[in-house]
Amino acid sequence: MLSFHSGGTGARPTKDGLSATAFPSGVRSVPIEILESIAPIVVWRKDYRTDLGGAGGTRGGLGQVMEIASAENAPFAVFAMFERIEHPARGRDGGHDGAAGRVSLASGRTLRGKGQQTIPAGERLRLELPGGGGFGDPHERDPERVEADVRNGLVSAETAAKVYGLPRLREQGGSGA
After folding, report:
1. Which phi-psi region, left, alpha or beta, contains residue 174 (left: φ > 0; alpha: ψ -120 to 50)?
2. Total domain count for the chain?
3. What Rg, from alpha-carbon coordinates, does the chain have?
4. Are 73 and 35 spatial neighbours (Cβ–Cβ below 8 Å)?
5. Do residue 110 and residue 168 come from a single domain?
6. Does 124 lie in the same domain as 68?
7. What's the pTM?
8. Are residue 107 and residue 175 in the same domain, yes or no?
9. Which pLDDT band, with edges at 50, 70 and 90, does 166 fall under?
10. Is residue 175 over pLDDT 70?
11. What distance in Å separates the CA atoms of residue 79 and residue 145, rounded to the nearest whole number?
12. C-beta of residue 118 within 8 angstroms of C-beta of residue 76
């Protein structure tokens, strides 16, 4: 089975980066239901990686975290072709870098981002796909957009306070109210 899974794209001068979307094609990830219907796998987790798109006046897109296992409790092979594992996307004009990606087993052992590897029976492949770089000074981001990011789980209340300068979100538990 061939499947694409993407991190986030970099922020643009007037727009946030796209989350879990390939650049430059704009291809989004394959839906879990398709993956599980064509191969003997189970996708146990597929979520955005909160806080890992680079902060900025416009925020970098978020990567995703996925956990994949054999549906038959058997070993399975993957041929990894992941980028931004060792070198995260850089921010621009005061924007923060996006988070680097990571390929590992759920038990913690790090795997290579390139090449064929076997996932042992009973283990889960954990993909932490990278975030895009931010653009511009995070303190210039519209506070309402930061509050919406917190409500939507894209940015934590702690990051909103520490990086974007909105301490009232921390005090109110991220409610934004």
Report:
1. left
2. 2
3. 17
4. no
5. no
6. yes
7. 0.85
8. no
9. confident
10. no
11. 38
12. yes
